[in-house]
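[step 3/7] inverse_fold.run input=structure_tokens len=295
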């Protein structure tokens, strides 16, 4: 019995990407390379983990740049930092210059998807997501009605949103519970989240920040879709005096069905994701600045 328990614990450890990603970095770099030959699972974790790729010098350290982008005469302007503003920059509604840091996606699939703002579609048990127990295999990226699974066995929770720190993001999510007779529809609302981490948000820390906010709110509204006697779908609004987490637990218990996260939208506030053409333009601006011709 004791041996079986030990084997179960070992199997649980090897199947948990987050734990392995916290243990493997303590190994010498040579051993980490050799570890990839043990199994496909370990090979995939090492290959797709940002943290381990940095340790093996296969990916550069997360560079934190003070450069900012602005718009002037409908063209990108690269500034050395936000203190070196030039005249006639495009402004926001508050009359402040529109500034953002140039960035690309850390995750290879997100980087090559060609979209400006990432929209993540996921279908895990929403309670597991809120409690931080979700498997990385569940997270999906939706791009123009196509779905791309974030591949690899590394934890998506430890994947940084961008290569320049994204410290401010806006999140919106929707969930539902489907039964044979009705559908319950709920949402997590639009939430702004910020982090003091110098490397910015990972997907995991952003989810945690969202859940921390929504779970503190009370007096929640949700919709129920059901069919009337004429087989027409009718939507009714319901109110619940308590947190979303309490509501979902109660509905799951009553219906015997799991709540599914159907939509998860992230908009980054302080970075701009560059297209390939824009990256070339920014690189040319950097060369110009280094040559003394910049602002």
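[step 3/7] decode complete -> sequence:
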């Amino acid at each position: 019995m004791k041996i079986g328990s030990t084997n179960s614990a070992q199997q649980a450890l090897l199947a948990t990407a987050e734990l392995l990603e916290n243990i493997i970095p303590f190994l010498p770099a040579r051993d980490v390379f050799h570890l990839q030959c043990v199994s496909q699972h370990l090979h995939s974790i090492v290959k797709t983990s940002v943290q381990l790729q940095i340790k093996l010098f296969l990916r550069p350290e997360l560079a934190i740049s003070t450069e900012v982008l602005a718009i002037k005469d409908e063209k990108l302007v690269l500034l050395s930092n936000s203190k070196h503003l030039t005249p006639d920059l495009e402004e926001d509604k508050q009359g402040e210059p529109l500034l953002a840091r140039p960035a690309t996606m850390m995750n290879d699939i997100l980087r090559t998807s060609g979209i400006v703002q990432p929209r993540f579609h996921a279908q895990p048990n929403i309670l597991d997501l809120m409690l931080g127990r979700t498997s990385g295999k569940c997270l999906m990226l939706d791009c123009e009605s196509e779905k791309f699974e974030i591949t690899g066995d590394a934890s998506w929770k430890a994947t940084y949103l961008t290569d320049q720190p994204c410290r401010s993001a806006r999140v919106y999510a929707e969930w539902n519970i489907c039964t044979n007779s009705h559908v319950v529809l709920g949402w997590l609302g639009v939430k702004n989240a910020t982090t003091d981490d110098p490397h910015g948000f990972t997907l995991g820390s952003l989810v945690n920040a969202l859940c921390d906010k929504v779970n503190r709110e009370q007096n929640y509204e949700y919709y129920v879709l059901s069919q009337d006697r004429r087989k027409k779908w009718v939507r009714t609004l319901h109110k619940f005096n308590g947190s979303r987490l309490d509501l979902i637990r109660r509905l799951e218990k009553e219906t015997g069905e799991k709540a599914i996260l159907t939509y998860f939208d992230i908009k980054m506030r302080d970075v701009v994701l560059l297209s390939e053409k824009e990256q070339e333009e920014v690189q040319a601006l950097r060369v110009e600045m280094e040559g003394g011709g910049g602002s």
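[step 4/7] annotate
The mean pLDDT is 75.
The chain is about 30% helix and 25% strand.
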